[in-house]
Amino acid sequence: MKKIAVLCMLINLVFLASCGGKDEKKEQAKNSPNNTVCESFLKYQECQYKAQGMDDATIKITLDQMKKAWMQAGDNMQTICQEAIDTAKKNGLKKGCSL
């Protein structure tokens, strides 16, 4: 009987852990720089950097650093990305690059 109780507890723990994992993944996806607003700005930045003659390695490092900074913003990440887009549009987009 004791083995059955332990087995039931383990099953419950596994179930709870899997439920928590799904919520965590949803939260990470929501706060990921790969969402539509941030992804479009990253593509614009990549185009702008290439137009300036930056090498691919430097572009990758720069964009990765930008993604890390946005991840630290948490819930404000969407707002920050949108503000960056608005600022870029206000200042004039680089010829050949679009948002």
What does this protein structure show overall?
The chain has 99 residues and is mostly helical. It has 2 domains: 1-30; 31-99, no CATH class. Helix content is 79%, strand content 0%. The protein has 4 helices and no strands. It has helices at residues 2-30, 36-51, 56-73, 77-91. It is flat, with a radius of gyration of 21 Å. Mean pLDDT is 75; it is low at 1-18 and 20-31.
Give me some keywords for this one.
single chain, 99 residues, mainly alpha, 2 domains, 79% helix, disordered N terminus
Summarize this structure briefly:
This protein has helices at residues 2-30, 36-51, 56-73, 77-91. By secondary structure, the chain is mainly α.
SSE-based structural type: mainly alpha
| Span of the ends, CA to CA | 64 Å
Instruction: Note the main sheet.
Output: none
Tally of distinct domains: 2
Kindly report the average pLDDT value: 75
Counting DSSP E segments of at least 2 residues, the number of strands comes to 0
Gyration radius over CA? 21 Å
Order of helices and strands: HHHH
The low-confidence parts are 1-18, 20-31
How helix-rich are the residues, as a percent range? over 70%
Give the overall shape. flat
Tally of helical runs: 4
| Beta-strand residue fraction | under 5%
How do the strands and helices of this protein lay out in sequence?
Layout: H1 2-30, H2 36-51, H3 56-73, H4 77-91
Helix pairs in contact: 2-3
